[in-house]
Specification:
55% helix; 2 domains
């Protein structure tokens, strides 16, 4: 297993990390591994229809891929 050393962690960040680890009954090292794992894992894609509270009837006839592509073009 690899070892990762992190230097120059700001005091405030370290204190917050310690507090977070304590709340979750983990060591700081375990909490850092957990945070890093969460940050790089790819979320399982969801269909627009699977999202709760967004008006399934409104999105029923909408192709999610086309909708997202259209939105991305609009913001480009």
């Amino acid at each position: 297993m690899a070892t990762l050393n992190v230097k120059n962690v700001p005091d405030r960040l370290h204190r917050r990390l310690q507090a977070r680890a304590r709340r979750r009954c983990r060591s700081v090292a375990q909490e850092v591994i957990h945070i890093l794992s969460q940050a790089i894992e790819e979320a399982e894609p969801m269909s627009i229809l699977e999202l709760r509270g967004l008006g399934k009837t409104h999105w029923k006839r909408t192709d999610p891929d086309r909708h997202v592509a259209r939105e991305r073009r609009a913001w480009s």
